[in-house]
Amino acid sequence: MKKKIAIILLIIAALCLIAFVIWKATCPKSYDPEVVEAEVFNDQTYDTDLFIGLWQSGSVFYRYNEDFTGGTWDTADDVMESEASRFTWEVNRNRLIHFHEMEIGGIIPKAHTIKNIDLGNLEYEDDFGTKYAFVKVE
């Protein structure tokens, strides 16, 4: 008889424990701070029309076309615009992304955080902290 009572009490204790765990998991917390994603602070958007044209930084050139294609070349390497490395590009909020087309096939994306753009200047930074500054040539 004592064993039956002990088993019944054990079962009741287990059911109480399960009910408590379920209640604790489903009830709202008394303090639940709002989680703010980092993207919330980077919600500035940029007009893609400002990118259209030819940009220069030293001997490096970038051309952004209206159809979101472009090319880059470095005159220090004796490369001209007709031999430029082709890419497509997009702007997503404050991110400028180049999708470089490899000669052997494949596409390599390179993302940058836009720091400033106006009618004559373009500044951005890649994910490794390298900063780029261009002046609009045409």
Provide keyphrases for this structure:
138 residues; alpha+beta; Lipocalin; eight-stranded antiparallel beta barrel; 1 helix; 8 strands; 39% strand
What structural class do the secondary elements suggest? alpha+beta
Distance between the termini: 96 Å
The whole-angstrom Rg is 29 Å
Order of helices and strands: HEEEEEEEE
Shape: rod-shaped
How much helix is in the residues? 10-25%
Strand order of the largest sheet: 1-2-3-4-5-6-7-8
Number of strands: 8
Count of discrete alpha- or pi-helical segments spanning 4 or more residues: 1
Strand content: 35-45%
Return residue spans where pLDDT drops below 50 for at least 5 consecutive residues.
Answer: none
**Could you say what the CATH architecture of the largest domain is?**
Beta Barrel
Largest sheet features = 8 strands, antiparallel, barrel
Average pLDDT reading: 86
Descriptive overview:
18% of the residues lie in helices and 39% in strands. The chain is an alpha+beta fold. The chain has two domains: 2-39; 45-136, Lipocalin, CATH 2.40.128. Strands 1-2-3-4-5-6-7-8 form an eight-stranded antiparallel barrel.
Topology:
Blueprint: H1 2-26, E1 53-57, E2 60-64, E3 69-74, E4 85-92, E5 95-101, E6 107-117, E7 121-126, E8 131-136
Antiparallel strand pairs: 1-2, 1-8, 2-3, 3-4, 4-5, 5-6, 6-7, 7-8
Can you describe this structure in just a few lines?
This protein is α+β, with helices and mostly antiparallel strands. 18% of the residues lie in helices and 39% in strands.
